[in-house]
């Protein structure tokens, strides 16, 4: 048997196994380190700060949990959110994330390590990403072998698709949910493979953790039944499937109902009915299998025919009847929007308005997964070649995950693990084939010697890679015993091996560079603090948000209500600690529409709304000065649409466009647009900033009119350094009972100069 | 289902009788014991469900807890039964009867922890 390169001889198998496992452990540790380290760009480039929007709420809730204990947290009623309604926080959140941080906090403090709760929250996501890498390793190991597992762990550790949701400071539910997802799937595969009730129970318990942590648990709720159903349809029902599925479902479902936010949904909503249906089906099949084992085949078939048809009809009738009677809630709008991508835009603008609910653009697949995207189909193909039960699972996951990732940007997150797994399978098969030192036999040689040589080389080499039959080639090795001149496919010589291996490593290192670049440039911005580059290339930090929120915190009474678009509700509550009308929880569409209406109507219409809601300050985000494109004028149409959904007679979207159908803010803007509160607040005194020169909106690239809008019912209270955040104070009713407009006109007629609150303002060129 | 050609109603009763006879003859006593427990759990579940439908489902969580405890215990016991069934030996080559019983006990404890928590 010829070898492409010599292997060390004289090593005992025990030494080889020990070394291999040591190397694996060290590699896993290094992968975990890399996974954590690449998520720390956000902390190094900026600071240890909570990112974006939702994390601010999670952080605030965690602070309550850490300082006041679990019972207070559980019963927490927050009167400052959704003013004046308030919010029952304990019953409307997934508490898994906060509970996890709370436990870590308490453990560290019990060990006399006084770590700040903020730092725990900031670093929780990177920490769990290391666990995700480990869970992915375990999962992939079940599919192929340890080397594929290590590759998968490395991929998931640095893939931008997952990093986008788990950088340090991105303290969101997804931070721990992906680990739970992968580990639940691993337990399920293990339960299925061994037929072990223990792993089924473990899957149930981790499913419970997942339910407590993320609304996306419905993905598991439907993936596992789908897998079980397809296995049944493929004629692969085994008692192992019964044991694994039943123990998972019985424990997992009961456990999931312990989360108050989920409540009775697992027995009452259509999303969960698939799991129940498959559970019932498995019971019937298992029973019929039992009956079959005691009966001769023909009698059994008669009995089975009657029984299965009968129960099938009864079961489906029952579910339809219950849905009809209203016992089982039909699918929710969020669910429909996954199938009909236009659904949300038509019926639930509030869901459609969220940027992460938009359909995914093609380039973002490459951006988030790069090389893995190309290896992904190859890996799925290799799964088809083996097609054990767990490969069927990966195939289903790949199909379902790809679909969902195409529908919604944020669901790229659920696709990423399966892409990493199958890409690892593909790549490790490639490397197995090309690193394997065994050279194929020359056709002249006699075939029978092939099998003998094969066994001697494997025992002699003892290498991990060489010991296992190569993934794609297993069939050909089995057919090899036939005494023909057919040889085992393989690679001759060292050069062919080196070319492929160098290429593979080249691509892998490009992948690493790409991931690092994407992570540091695209996904590590806290979006609370913005960065821009100075002309000399150095970093310039734009800290308007915190400036404005701290202004609110320090200069307004604690009870003053702040109105803003719902995006900023959590941040105001977290950083400014002031009551808000609406926030990112978006549970009350009418309340949000009220805010939308106030923003999009004239001052005269908006003023009574503001006064009725006790609004003291109105906060708008304006990016026109420095070109911050995520500002309120760009979100304005969604406010109009959502308000229109509730008051179709008063707010009409077409009124906000020019007669040519353009969305303009300059001279040609429509009258409705120009009179809307949002427009007035955004551009109030904007033109003055340019000292008579051309006022330019740098987001929309439009020249603003010389004379900007005037405000009669609000006073400018604060404008941040770069004008990103503007805060206006709502005037109280006039003391003499006039309406504020005439009062204003009167006072302006009397004396030319009105006293205005001094505003800190600096032109940025 | 293609072979179901000559099935008539008098044949059904004999089928059930042969089934019962075959069951009695072929099943080890241990499994019969497990089956008795399964039968009891089934009856208990039916009674609870009938109560829920006919009388009231008022403390719905309590009903769910009770019903899930019987269903959960049923499937765990059924799992144990198939794991220790000598006919399935080659299917569960990684699960010995002792391990199966340990799994069963652990699973039941976890199940009843949640049941207890949910009773309210």
From TrEMBL, chain A:
All residue ranges annotated as the STT3/PglB/AglB core domain in the record: 560-610
Keywords: Endoplasmic reticulum, Glycoprotein, Glycosyltransferase, Magnesium, Manganese, Membrane, Metal-binding, Transferase, Transmembrane, Transmembrane helix
Membrane-crossing segments per the record: 21-44, 88-108, 120-140, 146-163, 175-192, 241-261, 273-291, 303-324, 365-384, 391-409, 494-513
Region (Disordered): 444-484, 746-765
Pfam families xrefs: STT3, STT3-PglB_core
Basic residues bias (residue ranges): 749-765
Protein's membrane topology: Multi-pass membrane protein
Subcellular location field: Endoplasmic reticulum membrane
GO BP, sorted A to Z: post-translational protein modification; protein N-linked glycosylation via asparagine
Cellular component annotations (GO), alphabetically ordered: oligosaccharyltransferase complex
Reactions accelerated catalytically: a di-trans,poly-cis-dolichyl diphosphooligosaccharide + L-asparaginyl-[protein] = N(4)-(oligosaccharide-(1->4)-N-acetyl-beta-D-glucosaminyl-(1->4)-N-acetyl-beta-D-glucosaminyl)-L-asparaginyl-[protein] + a di-trans,poly-cis-dolichyl diphosphate + H(+)
InterPro entries hit by this protein: Oligo_trans_STT3 (IPR003674), STT3-PglB_core (IPR048999), STT3_N (IPR048307)
Pathway: Protein modification; protein glycosylation
Extent of Polar residues compositional bias: 474-484
Composition skew (Low complexity), residue ranges: 444-463
Keyword Manganese: yes
GO molecular function: dolichyl-diphosphooligosaccharide-protein glycotransferase activity; metal ion binding
The enzyme's E.C. designation: 2.4.99.18
Family: Belongs to the STT3 family.
Name of the protein in question: Dolichyl-diphosphooligosaccharide--protein glycosyltransferase subunit STT3
Organism: Pleurotus eryngii
UniProtKB/TrEMBL annotation, chain B:
Subcellular location: Endoplasmic reticulum membrane
Protein's membrane topology: Multi-pass membrane protein
Family: Belongs to the DAD/OST2 family.
Assembly description: Component of the oligosaccharyltransferase (OST) complex.
Functional summary from the UniProt entry: Subunit of the oligosaccharyl transferase (OST) complex that catalyzes the initial transfer of a defined glycan (Glc(3)Man(9)GlcNAc(2) in eukaryotes) from the lipid carrier dolichol-pyrophosphate to an asparagine residue within an Asn-X-Ser/Thr consensus motif in nascent polypeptide chains, the first step in protein N-glycosylation. N-glycosylation occurs cotranslationally and the complex associates with the Sec61 complex at the channel-forming translocon complex that mediates protein translocation across the endoplasmic reticulum (ER). All subunits are required for a maximal enzyme activity.
PANTHER family: DOLICHYL-DIPHOSPHOOLIGOSACCHARIDE--PROTEIN GLYCOSYLTRANSFERASE SUBUNIT DAD1
Protein name: Dolichyl-diphosphooligosaccharide--protein glycosyltransferase subunit OST2
């Amino acid at each position: 048997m010829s070898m492409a390169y010599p292997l060390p001889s004289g090593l005992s198998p025990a030494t080889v196994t020990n070394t291999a496992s040591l190397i694996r452990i060290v590699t896993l540790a290094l992968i975990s380190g890399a996974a954590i380290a690449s998520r720390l760009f956000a902390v190094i480039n900026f600071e240890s700060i909570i990112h974006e929007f939702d994390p601010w709420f999670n952080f605030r809730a965690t602070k309550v949990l850490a300082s006041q204990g679990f019972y207070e947290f559980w019963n927490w009623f927050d009167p400052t959110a959704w003013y004046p309604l308030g919010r029952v926080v304990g019953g409307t959140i997934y508490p898994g994330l906060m509970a996890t941080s709370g436990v870590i906090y308490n453990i560290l403090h019990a060990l006399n390590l006084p770590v700040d709760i903020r730092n725990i929250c900031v670093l929780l996501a990177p920490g769990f990403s290391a666990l995700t890498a480990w869970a992915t390793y375990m999962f992939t190991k079940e599919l192929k072998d340890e080397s594929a597992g290590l590759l998968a762990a490395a991929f998931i550790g640095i893939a931008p698709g997952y990093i986008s949701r788990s950088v340090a400071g991105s303290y969101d539910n997804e931070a721990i949910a992906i680990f739970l997802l992968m580990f639940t799937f691993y337990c399920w595969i293990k339960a299925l493979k061994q037929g072990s009730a223990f792993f089924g129970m473990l899957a149930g318990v981790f499913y419970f953790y997942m339910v407590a942590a993320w609304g996306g648990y419905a993905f598991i709720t439907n993936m596992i039944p789908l897998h079980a159903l397809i296995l049944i349809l493929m004629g692969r029902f085994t008692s192992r499937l019964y044991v694994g599925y039943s123990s998972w479902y019985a424990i997992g479902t009961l456990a999931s109902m312990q989360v108050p936010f989920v409540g009775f949904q697992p027995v009452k909503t259509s999303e969960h009915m698939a799991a129940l249906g498959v559970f019932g089906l498995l019971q019937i099949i298992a029973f019929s299998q039992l009956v079959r084992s005691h009966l001769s085949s023909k009698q059994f078939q008669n009995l089975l025919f009657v029984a299965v048809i009968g129960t099938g009809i009864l079961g489906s009738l029952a579910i339809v009847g219950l849905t009809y009677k209203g016992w089982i809630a039909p699918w929710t709008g969020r669910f429909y929007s996954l199938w009909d991508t236009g659904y949300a835009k038509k019926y639930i603008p509030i869901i459609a308005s969220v940027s992460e609910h938009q359909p995914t653009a093609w380039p973002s697949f490459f951006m988030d997964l790069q090389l893995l995207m190309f290896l992904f189909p190859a890996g799925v193909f290799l799964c088809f070649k083996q097609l054990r039960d767990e490969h069927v699972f990966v195939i289903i996951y790949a199909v379902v995950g790809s679909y969902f990732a195409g529908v919604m940007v944020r669901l790229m997150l659920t696709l990423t693990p399966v892409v990493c797994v199958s890409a690892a399978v593909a790549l490790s098969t490639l490397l197995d084939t090309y690193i394997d030192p065994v050279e194929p036999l020359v056709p002249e040689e006699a075939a029978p010697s092939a099998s003998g040589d094969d066994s001697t080389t494997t025992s002699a080499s003892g290498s991990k890679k060489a010991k296992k039959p190569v993934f794609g080639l297993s069939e050909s090795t089995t057919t090899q015993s036939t005494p023909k001149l057919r040889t085992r496919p393989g690679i001759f010589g060292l050069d062919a091996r080196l070319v492929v291996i160098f290429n593979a490593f080249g691509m892998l290192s490009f992948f690493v560079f790409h991931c690092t670049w994407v992570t540091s440039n695209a996904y590590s911005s806290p979006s609370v603090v913005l960065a821009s580059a100075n002309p000399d290339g150095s970093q310039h930090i734009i800290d308007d948000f915190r400036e404005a929120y701290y202004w609110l915190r320090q200069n307004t009474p604690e009870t003053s209500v702040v109105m803003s678009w719902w995006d900023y509700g959590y941040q105001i509550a977290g950083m400014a600690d002031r009551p808000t009308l609406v926030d990112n929880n978006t549970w009350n569409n009418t309340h949000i529409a009220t805010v939308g209406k106030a923003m999009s109507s004239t001052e005269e219409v908006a003023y009574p709304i503001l006064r009725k809601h006790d609004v003291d300050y109105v906060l708008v985000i304006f990016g026109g000065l420095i070109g911050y494109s995520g500002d309120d004028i760009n979100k304005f149409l969604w406010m109009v649409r959502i308000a229109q959904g509730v008051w179709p007679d008063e707010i009409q979207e077409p009124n906000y466009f020019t007669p040519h159908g353009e969305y303009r803010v300059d001279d040609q803007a429509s009258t409705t647009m120009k009179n809307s509160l949002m427009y007035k607040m955004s551009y109030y005194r904007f033109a003055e900033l340019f000292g008579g020169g051309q006022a330019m909106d740098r987001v929309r690239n439009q020249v603003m009119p010389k004379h900007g809008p005037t405000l009669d019912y609000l006073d400018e209270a604060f404008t941040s350094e770069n004008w990103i955040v503007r805060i206006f104070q709502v005037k109280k009713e006039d003391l003499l009972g006039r309406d504020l407009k005439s009062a204003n006109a009167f006072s302006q007629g009397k004396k030319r100069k009105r006293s205005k609150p001094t505003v800190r303002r600096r032109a940025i060129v | 289902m293609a072979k179901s050609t000559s099935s008539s109603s008098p044949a059904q009763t004999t089928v059930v009788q042969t089934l019962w006879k075959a069951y009695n003859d072929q099943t080890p006593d241990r499994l019969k014991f497990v089956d008795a427990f399964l039968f009891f759990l089934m009856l208990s579940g039916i009674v609870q469900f009938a109560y829920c439908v006919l009388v009231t489902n008022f403390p719905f969580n309590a009903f769910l807890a009770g019903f899930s405890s019987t269903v959960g215990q049923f499937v765990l016991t059924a799992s144990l039964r198939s794991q220790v069934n000598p006919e399935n030996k080659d299917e569960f080559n990684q699960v010995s009867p002792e391990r199966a019983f340990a799994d069963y006990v652990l699973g039941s404890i976890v199940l009843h922890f949640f049941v207890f928590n949910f009773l309210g």
